[in-house]
Amino acid sequence: MVEKIKVYGGQVINGTIQISGAKNSALPLLAASILSDDGLSLKNVPPLSDIKTMLTLLNKLGIESNITKDNDFSISVNNKTDSINTFTAPYDIVKKMRASILVLGPLLARFGQCRVSLPGGCAIGVRPIDLHLKGLEALGADIELKDGYVCAQAKMGLKGGEFEFPIVTVTGTENLMMAATLANGYTVLKNVAKEPEIVDLANCLNKMGAKITGQGTSEIHIKGVTRLNNTTYTVLPDRIEAGTYAIAAGITRGNLDLIGGDFRSLLTCFITKMEEIGLVFEDIPNGIRVYSSGKINPCHIETKPFPGFPTDLQAQTMSLLCLATGESTVEENIWENRFMHVAELIRMGANISISGHKAIIKGVSSLIGAPVMATDLRASFSLVLAGLAAKGNTIVDRVYHLDRGYCCVEKKLANCGVKIDRI
Length: 423
Ligand code: EPU
What we know:
The protein contains 15 helices and 24 strands. The protein is an alpha/beta fold. The protein has 2 domains: 202 residues, UDP-n-acetylglucosamine1-carboxyvinyl-transferase, Chain (Alpha-beta prism), CATH 3.65.10.10; 212 residues, UDP-n-acetylglucosamine1-carboxyvinyl-transferase, Chain (Alpha-beta prism). Uridine-diphosphate-2(N-acetylglucosaminyl) butyric acid binds next to α1, α5, α6 and α13.
């Protein structure tokens, strides 16, 4: 039975939310445990279904993990030298979560061989992995596609090399960076992603003994080392979760303290746009306060790689702009099909038209609750946000998408006086 969420309309959010560790940081960090000779301990890992999927995948490879439930949870990966006994990431796991592709670079770098299922399409776009493969070939890997699997080999180990990404890719940069840490020689990666999650991964790898510089800029340099060791590392806070709740404050005309990190520097471009729309941000210890000025001004948004406006906050922002006092435009430049929430918002009374990769949103005075369907992770929260501001109640179907990337949603909202029910 697929769970649904009932969102009661017309609520105002007020209170404090502890932001969890970043999903998109924790996933590559867990994959990086494959590179270590003696495991890895991570703190502040968000308890999400995507994290469970990654742990299941690591377990298939022979890596055990112990979870200690604290804030959110700590995971120690036990990875004795001889514990990894298979090098295959099977289709049944990869099809559930595309980030499974992150085991490709580490397996190849440490064991000189692996078989990883090709991920296939997804609701937000085609999502090819050609650049992951070309990059690994530049480090000396032999790659063959066979029976839906990437079969990669580097019998004598990977060699340092130079690779320039023709377009910026987040997990592509992460795969190559992880692979190059154990390659023989020096690697230069150009036109890499600069996302904070890339910096987090590089910092953890360096703590494990890697020699990486340039993370956070468009060029990363890696001096290969022969082994990486266990360390304890705390996952970066989730900027997308923080941004999503900031929009909740805007759309319900509420007031939130978002605790857990330096969100002003993690979300600079997003905050500038939200201020233009009418949200007010104030620095507080270990976080940021956000509240509504009462206005929702129209705005022009263009998604771009970091430090630009994040695509992972596009759907949620669109819900807010549905209630703006004028016409807004949202350009999606990362994913070719990330407007699936538009049809659902229209069912709630929004006035949106799409022209290519641009959505034109004419603000309406109110949204009306309706049964709607979540199509991907971020779209699902955009519908919850629209439901909170709507007149009447909204039922969001297929909420398993939400559980992939937002933890304890009901509890976090309830602490701030907002009621939603899982049915
Ligand atoms: N691309 C290629 N070839 C490749 C790799 C990417 O053409 O080999 C294209 C993609 O099709 C896309 C663009 O490059 O058009 C950027 O994709 P990217 O590789 O950066 O995306 P990703 O690494 O698969 C990560 C996040 C996504 C987030 C994007 C963009 C993780 C686990 N996922 O995906 O997060 O949208 O970067 O910032 O880090 C989410 O959390 O909801 C989510 C989808």
